[in-house]
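Recall the central idea of this unit: under ordinary conditions, the amino acid sequence of a chain determines the structure it adopts. In this exercise we apply that idea directly, starting from the sequence alone.
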Amino acid sequence: MAVGQATSPAARVSTPAGLVVGIPEGGRLVFGRGPDADLTIAAGRGLSRRAGVISTVGDGVWIANISRTHALYTEGDGYRIRLPRMEDNGEPSGGWFLRAGMTLVGSRAMLDEGQPLCVMVAGQSGGWDSGPEGTRVWQDGDATLLPLYLDPMTKIFLVALMWCRPWLLDPAGTSPLPRTPEIAKAALEVTGAYHELERFDTDPAFRDRLSARVAEHIKVLRRKITDRGLVRADTRLSDEVVVRVLMEHGIITTADLGRLNDPAWCSRQEDLWWTQEA
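Accordingly, the structure predicted from this sequence is:
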């Protein structure tokens, strides 16, 4: 659970029961009817046990449906969007990005009965404004349906971040991008697997095995970009094209570099990479 009651949270979620939960920058909150969710919604008629995830990413909030069986909606002034269900590979196929302002989230029944979650995001104004019925909301809303999201708590996210890191640090894009073995080695360094670094340099079989694991994630990233129509069908997906797409669509952002200094995130990645199968 990566939710906190920070003094100045990047986003806030209020429930039908009146509970308000702050989500810090780089945090995520899983909500649903089940007790294993970070935020349990007792009034969530038509909601899955683990229904959705709200993540603070870049300069806004990403809302995705993580249920394979139930629909989830976001609603605001002039729109009601049905969020795509979870894909078979366990990843959201799309979601709602809210740069600032407020949106309502829930099942159709929750929205129709006036019992949704209310998600509020900090805008550039940087302050609260009074909303209806005493609710405090952020000004200057800007919402977009994003075609691709990478959960920061997955191995593919670390691969994408290491791939993009040179250009995140050098927006001009003049720095060379790492190749597969370099990304693999960076994963060892980031997760603190120093005991494996020497083996990486001296054991070709280990190096090839780890590089092959990274190559599979890169293959998936290329497929996702094609499937979501983020490039023209005839575009060659070179490393440079893929990294530019990941950055220009806000899938990987400069703010994500801060995760490299987050012990909890690094520890989670270490668990994923070195205590689980590829």
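The chain is about 30% helix and 25% strand.
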